[in-house]
Amino acid sequence: MAAERVSMRKTKEILRLYFGMGLTRRQVARSCNISHSTVSDYVRRAEAAGIEWPLSEGLDEAALEVKLFPGNAIPVASEKPLPRWEDIHRELKSKGVTLQLLWIEYKQQYPEGYQYSRFCELYRRWAETLDLSLRQEYRAGEKLFVDFAGKGIEVTNPLTGETKEAEIFVAVLGASNYTYAEALESQDIPSWINAHIHAFEYFGGGAKITIPDNLKSGVSKACRYEPDISPTYQDMAEHYGTAVIPARVARPKDKAKVEAGVLVVTRWITAALRHHTFFSIREINDKIGELLERLNTRKFKKLKSTRKELFETIEKPSLLPLPQTRYQYAEWKKARVHIDYHIEVDGHFYSVPYQLVRKQVEVRLTAKTVEVLYKGNRIATHRRSYDKGRFTTISEHRPEKHRRYYEWTPTRIIQWAEKTGSETAAVVEHIICSRAHPEQGYRSCLGIISLAKRYSPERLEAACRRAVTINAYSYKSVKSILDTGSDQQPLPEEKEVKPIEHENIRGECYYC
């Protein structure tokens, strides 16, 4: 069965994490929600194509795909036989039994099977899923663990007296245990992203890897082995240069640091504030800031140092530098381009180039802008509008015929008719003014003006003069006058109406 090719957006993320950040292939695989073998395949293709990070200018997603996949062939998954790893694991507990011996026996049974190095790799990957207790060592600046505390802090509405629980966000650096905490309104995506931004700014930098729990705000699809990162969270991670590798579901040891940090924050901050009454989130955070300073300068029980001392000496110099600008919160959506070359976003319609009709595009939404991307390239940018049912259209996005149509206005059409003559302009103006909407008369007016090409401006002007005289304001009437040659006949003279004199008719003097 052919292996499914990952999206080019995720392909670029693979290249960024592997070549740009130096993550291992397994770390890239976990961050990007793909298998280790797929990462290896894409890295091999990139190296063979001479692709480096950052990508060269002009290398869009379409060009990158051509370089990585010059042919149409899709990698085919291997169908080599596998041993029962449970049996291999049990045999290894026997005295004198090694993986090499078990591999030799495996090859005798399956000559077409895996070679020794791959055999060992597959076994170790399987063994990692077992419940093994390992003491993990963290390098400075490598990992940042983030999560929400289970117990929050109550905040009281000063007007109604109602109380609700504020969420407590906790972030802990792996090497120094330097801790950050913040009270939030909720666990929604904007709050989650803003808390990360505040944590990075508190630390003065970001870690190489950020490890969250499988929270819906950060992980759009929770999975024990292949969690999928939400686009907004990934966008924020790219801005700060960090890689997101979620902890596995039901595996608290993957984020033991933040679990311990949550416990410490609960004991030394949340519990310490249990008797306080707060009327706003800001009041809570002011108090948390004071207690957080006390926590980070408190000495460890088994070490002659504090979190802050370790942070200043070993962790801070190794953190990734902050970008020049703060991340601007953005939501990502997918949209299908309608036949009128507009996409619908929150009830408002935005134009894109008409060539993308029926194509699926990505939309990046900020508070003020709407960016539309197709295969990684920005194709349109609009000022965001919250008027539902309205349209925001850029003229250049329309086909040429549509642009020419929308460039016409009543004044312009009348001015063009005046080039033929005043009578032609009078007919055109009457048609436009007689319609409920001027646009309803455009087609008729343009038809009258075009008659000058078939006949002549002089004849058209004469025909319009006759049309005005007989009150025939329409394209068909003017064309009929020209077709029958009536424009070349003298206009009918107005006959003088003489008063009727009769003995039974009262004259004007009767009313004096």
Describe the structure.
By secondary structure, the chain is an alpha+beta fold. The protein folds into 5 domains: 8-68, Orthogonal Bundle (Arc Repressor Mutant, subunit A); 85-127, no CATH class; 143-318, Nucleotidyltransferase, domain 5; 331-400, no CATH class; 408-488, no CATH class. Helices cover 40% and strands 14% of the residues. The chain has helices spanning 8-20, 25-32, 36-49, 61-68, 85-92, 99-109, 116-127, 189-203, 231-240, 256-270, 281-296, 307-315, 400-406, 410-418, 422-433, 442-454, 457-469, 475-484; strands at residues 143-148, 153-156, 163-173, 179-184, 209-212, 219-221, 228-229, 243-244, 331-336, 342-345, 348-351, 360-365, 369-374, 377-383, 391-392. The strands form 4 sheets. Strands 1, 2, 3, 4, 5 and 8 form a 6-stranded mixed beta sheet that branches. Strands 9-12-13-14 form a 4-stranded antiparallel beta sheet, with no helix packed on it. A 3-stranded mixed beta sheet has the order 10-11-15, with no helix packed on it. Helix 2 (25-32) crosses helix 3 (36-49) and helix 14 (410-418) packs antiparallel against helix 15. The radius of gyration is 38 Å and the shape is elongated. Mean pLDDT is 80; it is low at 72-77, 131-136 and 220-227.
What key phrases describe this protein's structure?
Arc Repressor Mutant, subunit A, four-stranded antiparallel β-sheet, 5 domains, alpha+beta, 512 residues, Nucleotidyltransferase, domain 5
The gist of it:
By secondary structure, this protein is α+β, with helices and mostly antiparallel strands.
